[in-house]
Structure formats: structure tokens, C-alpha cells
Write a structure and sequence with these properties.
There is one protein chain. Helix 1 packs across helix 8, helix 3 packs parallel to helix 5 (183-189) and helix 8 runs antiparallel to helix 9. The protein is built from 10 helices and 17 strands. Helix content is 31%, strand content 26%. It has one domain (2-11, 52-106, 125-337): UDP-N-acetylmuramoyl-L-alanine:D-glutamate ligase, CATH 3.40.1190. It is α/β, with parallel strands linked by helices.
Length: 338
């Protein structure tokens, strides 16, 4: 039996540091990178590495000393071989990987500039996971960690019910597409979920109200999801509900973040790793607050570490690094009754 199996996407990420001018644009950051068409430019730096939710989280779980496997779909191409090789080096079990002759491995180009990034994505094989690819009877594990790219979000009801049947604890980080196009099926199956992680925008979308009142958002989501709910807020830290209490914490301040890619995966995987390490049973309204605080600290520390290096999981923490770093044990966590 595995400690955790990750189910979701795998990509090859091409990071390119750029130095282009900005122009006004109708986006949340109100600007866009201006790249003259038909010209050739030099990059300041570049990196090729692995990405995708399932690969990123598997890397954290393995570095935390957990027996880990991943269920991903890749093409029969060089990027697919690179992903397999990286997982092998990390010690992640590869036997559940699906290789498809008809579609290329997913890949992304990330343009990095001034601490932010723009992403060009080819969804490819990673978003084409189907029910015929899954062999549930082989996926014996304590936990499944799920984040489904593209239209593969439609698999979630099958995965959730199978987790319940097999006695597997279930964590999910739904994608934006899942929340937009599959919100009703997500809500219908949250009753099977032991850990749900969202950012503030995703939480507001799921709850159907603005995040200006975080406690009310939690009240609404707690009615849908009986497990632990974590909502991340970037530099503001995170809030976690166990159905009775809300835990609030900030972030570890340090060096300026080099790349925020993978921070959410690092947080979610770190939290679940903490629950596994502490042997939290995840029984509705009977959670151990000390175990949750350990998970919060590990999640926050792992996210802080990952953003200090370019690449979605390059700087994921080992269990030794977390336990032997004094500042990680001192994160202030405020608790209030809901």
C-alpha cells in the first residue's frame, strides 16, 4: 500500500526570463508584455523542468519520506521520458503512468519578469485522462491527492466514490475549469472529500459570495465539505476550517519570491503530508487541533521554500529540512470558533 497516490496532470515547463516593455491591458494586473511580432530576442536565462499538479505534489510527498505513486498521462515523446526520469530520480513509483501514442505530452512556456509570470500552455496528454485509463483496484493507498486538468475534471465523481468504497482518504485541489464547468458535480461529491484546498477566488466561486467575509465563505463551504478546508491568500497567508474552528496564519517572510509557480501545489501537498505524519484520522468535527497546526506549518513552509527557486517543485522541502529548521516551528497560528 502507498501512503499517497497523486492523480492529475504532468507537464514539461520551459521557464524563460524576459526583459520586455509593458503596455496597458485589461487583465487583473492591468498590463501585458509587449513582444514585437516577427522578431528574434535573447532571454536573460532559461530552465527546463517538470510541472503539473500530480508531479509537483508527488515530489513533495516523496521528499517528505512518504511512499508515493502518481497516475498521469504522457505522450510517447522526449518530454514524456523527461517526466518519467525525473519521477524516478525523486523515488516516485512510475507503474501507473499511462503513455499515449496519439497525443503529445503537455507542456508550458512561462515568461518570467518582475516577479510575475505569463504562461502559454499546451494541454496535451495531461488533460486527456479518461475513465478507461484508471485501474482503481491497483491504487491501494492511504490517500489520493487529486487535481484534474482540462476536461478530465469529469472523472471526479468516479474517483470520489471509489475512494469512499476503498477506504482511501481524498484530497482535492479543483482547477479553475473544474469550478466553472463542473461546479455542480463538484459540490455533489464534496461529501467524500477529507481535504479541500482553494485560493480565495476559487473559494468565492464555490461559495457563490465575495471573499470579503471569509468566515461566511467558510460557513457555506463547510456545509458542502465535511473535511478540512484550506483557503490560501498569497502574501496574506491562509485560513483553514475544521468545521468548528478557523485557523489563521501568515507566511514566512524572507527573500523575495523568484517564481510563484507551484506554490498552491506545495501548500496542498505539504498539508496532506502533515496529516499523514501526525496520523490525523480526519473524522468529521473530531479533528485534533495540534495535528492541524503541524500540517499548517508544513504547508506554509513548503510553499515558502518552493517560491524561492524557479520551477514548480525544485525547492520542495524534505522532512528533515522542515523538522530541523527552527523558524518553521514558530509560525503563529490564531484559532477562533466559527
Amino acid at each position: 500500500m502507498f501512503d499517497v497516490i497523486t492523480i492529475g496532470s504532468a507537464t514539461i515547463d520551459f521557464f524563460v526570463k524576459t526583459n520586455f516593455p509593458f503596455v496597458p491591458w485589461d487583465t487583473p494586473l492591468k498590463q501585458a508584455i509587449a513582444i514585437p511580432f516577427g522578431e528574434k530576442f535573447s532571454a536573460r536565462d532559461s530552465l527546463i523542468t517538470t510541472g503539473g499538479n500530480a508531479v509537483n505534489t508527488a515530489t513533495t510527498f516523496r521528499r517528505q519520506g512518504l511512499k508515493t505513486a502518481t497516475v498521469i498521462k504522457i505522450g510517447r515523446d522526449i518530454p514524456g521520458e523527461m517526466i518519467q526520469s525525473r519521477l524516478h530520480l525523486e523515488g516516485v513509483e512510475n507503474k501507473f503512468i499511462i503513455r499515449d501514442n496519439s497525443i503529445d505530452t503537455s507542456r508550458s512556456v512561462l515568461l518570467l519578469q518582475n516577479g510575475e509570470r505569463s504562461i502559454i500552455t499546451y494541454q496535451g496528454a495531461g488533460a486527456s485522462l479518461s475513465i478507461t485509463d484508471l485501474k482503481f483496484n491497483e491504487y491501494a493507498s492511504k490517500w489520493w491527492y487529486v487535481s484534474l486538468a482540462g476536461d478530465s475534471y469529469k472523472l471526479f465523481p468516479f474517483i470520489a466514490k471509489k475512494a469512499k468504497e476503498m477506504g482511501v482518504k481524498l484530497a482535492i485541489n479543483p482547477t479553475a475549469k473544474h469550478l466553472r464547468d463542473g461546479k455542480s458535480q463538484l459540490i455533489a461529491n464534496l461529501k467524500y472529500v477529507d481535504f479541500l484546498v482553494l485560493n480565495e477566488g476559487e473559494a468565492a466561486l464555490l461559495a457563490g459570495i465575495s471573499f470579503t467575509n471569509g468566515t461566511e465563505v467558510f460557513r457555506k463551504i463547510d456545509k458542502l465539505a465535511p473535511g478540512i478546508v484550506a483557503i490560501t491568500g498569497g502574501d496574506k497567508g491562509s485560513m483553514i476550517s475544521d468545521g468548528k474552528n478557523i485557523y489563521k496564519t501568515g507566511i514566512f517572510r524572507g527573500k523575495k519570491a523568484l517564481d510563484r509557480t507551484g506554490a498552491g501545489d506545495a501548500y496542498g501537498a505539504g498539508f496532506v503530508a502533515g496529516l499523514i505524519h501526525t496520523k490525523e484520522k480526519c473524522e468529521r468535527l473530531n479533528f485534533d487541533s495540534e495535528k492541524i497546526k503541524y500540517a499548517v506549518r508544513l504547508a506554509t513552509a513548503n510553499a515558502a521554500s518552493v517560491v524561492q527557486k524557479i520551477g514548480a517543485a525544485e525547492n520542495a522541502l524534505s522532512r528533515k529540512d522542515f523538522n530541523n529548521t527552527a523558524k518553521y516551528q514558530k509560525l503563529k497560528i490564531d484559532i477562533q470558533k466559527i
